[in-house]
Amino acid sequence: MSFYDEIEIEDMIFDADQGILTYPCPCGDKFQIALDDLKDGEEVAVCPSCSLMIKVIFDPEDLEQFEES
Predict the structure, then answer these.
(1) Overall domain count for the chain
(2) DSSP string covering 1-60
(3) Residue 44 phi/psi, 5° resolution?
(4) What CATH number did the domain enclosing 30 receive?
(5) pLDDT of residue 68
(6) Is position 55 within any domain?
(7) Is 25 annotated as a binding residue?
(8) Is 47 annotated as a binding residue?
């Protein structure tokens, strides 16, 4: 699997209402991944508008900060 980039979870923006983390994509849209997917061990965020993917770099304990939001 080929990634556009590897992004630290701290650099992503959390939308508490939707439970997703986003990161700007070069196409103008945003890479997205659900917090629940991260909890399940998924680490690939995809852009819904193009074929690019990023790998989210995180430790499981990093997810706790988003549950407190």
Answers:
(1) 1
(2) ---SEEEEGGGSEEETTTTEEEEE-TTSSEEEEEHHHHHTT--EEE-SSSS-EEEEE--G
(3) -110, 120
(4) 3.10.660.10
(5) 62
(6) yes
(7) yes
(8) yes
Residue 66 has what pLDDT?
86
Q: Is 50 annotated as a binding residue?
A: yes
Could you give the CA distance from residue 49 to residue 37 in angstroms, rounded to a whole number?
20
Asked if residue 33 is part of any domain, the answer here is: yes
pLDDT by residue for the chain (69 residues), tens only, comes to 799 999 999 999 999 999 999 999 999 999 999 999 999 999 999 999 998 999 999 999 999 888 764
